[in-house]
UniProtKB/TrEMBL annotation:
This is 2OG-Fe(II) oxygenase. Residues 151-243 form the Prolyl 4-hydroxylase alpha subunit Fe(2+) 2OG dioxygenase domain. Gene3D superfamilies: q2cbj1_9rhob like domain. It comes from the Bacteria.
């Protein structure tokens, strides 16, 4: 199996509004189809209750449980194993070699490479400097009574994260409106408290929108300007499906420029 970054070079990087790569048809058609057809069920991911889950709520299943899941396909196990491996991490580091923040490099003794690696949920930071994950995530259907909503407005990811990669596996019959990835820029510089779950609406503005579409991938390094969010999604019976790939360290290397009460 090829990785999402095979054949991707720094020439693919778009720097507006922050460094990122967006690729359509990221995996070969057969693999993308197999991943879509074998996407974990809601019960396999999270929900065993009899009542309807909350609308537009995120649930996840990490790589380590997927690899050890008796009911999931060999394709899924190979995919998450590859994309949570040190080899994939090395591809990410090489791709964005000119864009890693100085504060992140300083937190890793000057280099992102050469550290002990592990998997979230299997390993601990006491034994591994960097923990990776390639997890299935979903946003649940939205009932008409719930009305339109965004699963996550403009925000920065966790301050100990190194990069974020989203690989979409939208169902063929999913006709939902919204749920696209929005890329923002600060309106007056990074003056909001980045530790907040959602940034104030007037502190950022949308610059680019990446459609929620099957077999599409977007990846970007963490940084003070990497503000992103999900557009408002209209009521729908469909589940929003994707893989989230990331790596983290123990310490919060990304610091807020201001602390708000």
């Amino acid at each position: 199996m090829k990785s999402l970054l095979d054949g991707i070079t720094p020439e693919h990087i778009n720097t507006t509004p922050f460094p990122h790569v967006f690729i359509s048809n990221a995996m070969d058609a057969a693999t993308a189809q197999a991943l879509g057809d074998g996407f974990p069920t809601f019960a396999q991911i999270a929900w065993s209750g009899g009542s309807r889950p909350p609308g537009n709520r995120r649930y996840q299943l990490s790589a380590w449980p997927i690899i050890n899941h008796d009911e999931l396909s060999a394709t899924w196990k190979e995919f998450v194993d590859l994309h949570s491996s040190p080899a994939f991490f090395e591809q990410v580091v090489a791709l964005f070699q000119e864009y890693w923040p100085d504060a992140l490099k300083a937190a890793l003794d000057g280099s992102l490479l050469g550290h002990s690696m592990g998997l979230l949920m299997r390993d601990r930071f006491e034994n591994c400097r960097i923990l990776q994950d390639a997890r299935v995530e979903i946003n649940t259907p939205i009932a008409e009574a719930d009305g339109p909503s965004s699963s996550r407005g403009p925000h920065l990811d966790m301050p100990n994260r190194l990069f974020s990669c989203l690989y979409y596996l939208r169902e063929e019959d999913d006709d939902a409106v919204g749920g696209d990835l929005e890329l923002f820029r600060w309106t007056n510089g990074p003056t909001a408290n980045i530790d907040k779950y959602a940034l104030p609406a007037d502190s950022v503005e949308v610059v680019a929108t990446i459609p929620y579409r099957a077999n599409q991938m977007v990846i970007f390094p963490q940084g003070i300007n990497a503000v992103h969010g999900v557009s408002v999604r209209q009521p729908t019976p469909h589940t929003r499906r994707y893989v989230f790939i990331s790596a983290e360290i123990a310490d919060d290397w990304l610091k807020s420029p201001v602390t708000l009460s």
